[in-house]
Amino acid sequence: MVSAAPVPDALAPLPVAVQVDADRVVAPLPPIWRFFGADEPNYATQPDGAKLLLELGQLRPDAVYFRAHNLLTSGDGTADFKWGSTNVYTERDGKPVYDWHVVDGILDAYRARGLHPYLEIGFMPRALSSAPAGVPYRRPWSADGPKGNGTGGWNYPPRDYTKWAELVYQWTRHNVERYGRAEVERWYFEVWNEPNLDFYWSGDPQEFYRMHDVAIDAVRRALPSARVGGPDVAGAGDAFMDGFLNHVTGGTNYATGKTGTPTDFVSFHAKGQPSVVDGHVRMGIANQLQTADAGFAKIAAVPALAHTPIVIGENDPEGCAACPGPANAYRNGTLYASYTAASYARLWALARRRDVRLEGALSWSFTFVGQPWFAGYRQLASNGVDLAVLNVLRLFARLGETQVAASSDGEIALDRIVRDGVRGSPDVGVLATRTAGGKLAVLLWNYHDDDVPGPAAAVHLTLAGKHGAVARLWRVDARHANAFGAWQAMGSPARPTADQVARLQMASRLVAEPLAVGADGIDVTIPRQGVALIELER
């Protein structure tokens, strides 16, 4: 296997003591990582997209969800970064014409590979848009364009709420007929995306509440047992989210006239904030964690929703998967991978501290079909070759759903990392779980916000309680399960040969190695921006 060039360590390895008590249960650990999404729905039906969907479905068979924008958008079904379309709705002589074949192909692609839809109802079809005359339905997207580039008539309220309701009703009924009632009952239904941002919503909050109520009522008329919620706001939502939560719990429903709107889950988005400092990328993990904590607190403060399931409907290091740039240079390699390990561990901890029911934290990362190798977009695979971050998600999939006691003297305390991020000493953290079958899984990471060389962590792991004597180690770091490092070692070829592609595929693989269990524990070295999983079986 081709490996990345060695990373020079200016300092000696940092000694870190980790302790795990396999018999002391902390709490359930829900698999919040099993949610994914993308701006571009049509990539799902192309070969690289279909391949990646299959890999995502295999992470946790029959339990993975996918969310996509543009499922109701008018167009010819061509994907284009932050755009896609299905053309489900047109009109002839003022009467609705429904065409499900493109959207069926997208949802079929999910189901054929074992995924379930987290169904976003949006955006507004051209024939239903209330955009004023002269507003183009779509402006071409460019990552380098001015603010507002890419928006248009698709982000307006419906001009006719009765027709909007009927569209949603007919689509839901069609899905029940096509996929079966039991399957569609498993889906998440939510309306729109980030309606608190001008880019995505040109109406006012009350118009959004109305559109939301009408759509949710239409879903429930077609399938009374459907799981419905929202509003998938950007960030914790500020005053917009406060208004929405008040409306769905105590406001007058625009569709039914009753008090409140059915809400089976609540959703918001949490993003980090990377920057360039002294010529290198500095991640903003604190920004993402602060936003998540604020969202949890906001929901917990509403008694009627305090224990309602929460989905962080987009949960990422920054806000635009389709935007490359110097601050986003973390995406291809191990910085993204280690950030993911460190941030998800804190999401579990924050949800437990707020006593909220975190059900999902959706990674808005998929793939960009037909783009150059390792082009710098936020994705899980490049041209069919998996990136390091996908391998960390595979490590998550090996965790059990019962967390057991674990501590590391190299881990940044929760309050400190939420407040400051990781700017001084590295975050050498641990998360330990037990599976239903009794396997012990110990996740370790050596993370820093700054993308600069740093010392490896020389971890000494001591074990208490019942644990297996047979151990194996899985690694994701500069030299393991990292196709980007292998590509760099090849000289970063713009058009890899067939042999080079095969070598990249090999370099991307997550491979287990045996690990010695000594009388006093286990020793393992984790490079900077590395992640490791130790599994012990009887």
From TrEMBL:
GO terms for molecular function: hydrolase activity, hydrolyzing O-glycosyl compounds. Keywords: Glycosidase, Hydrolase. Pfam families: Glyco_hydro_39 (PF01229). PROSITE patterns: GLYCOSYL_HYDROL_F39. InterPro entries: GH, GH39_as, GH39_cat, Glyco_hydro_39, Glycosyl_Hydrolase_39. GO terms for biological process: carbohydrate metabolic process. Residues 17-515 form the Glycosyl hydrolases family 39 N-terminal catalytic domain. SUPFAM superfamilies: (Trans)glycosidases, Glycosyl hydrolase domain. Belongs to the glycosyl hydrolase 39 family. This is Beta-xylosidase. The lineage of its organism: Bacteria, Pseudomonadati, Pseudomonadota, Alphaproteobacteria, Sphingomonadales.
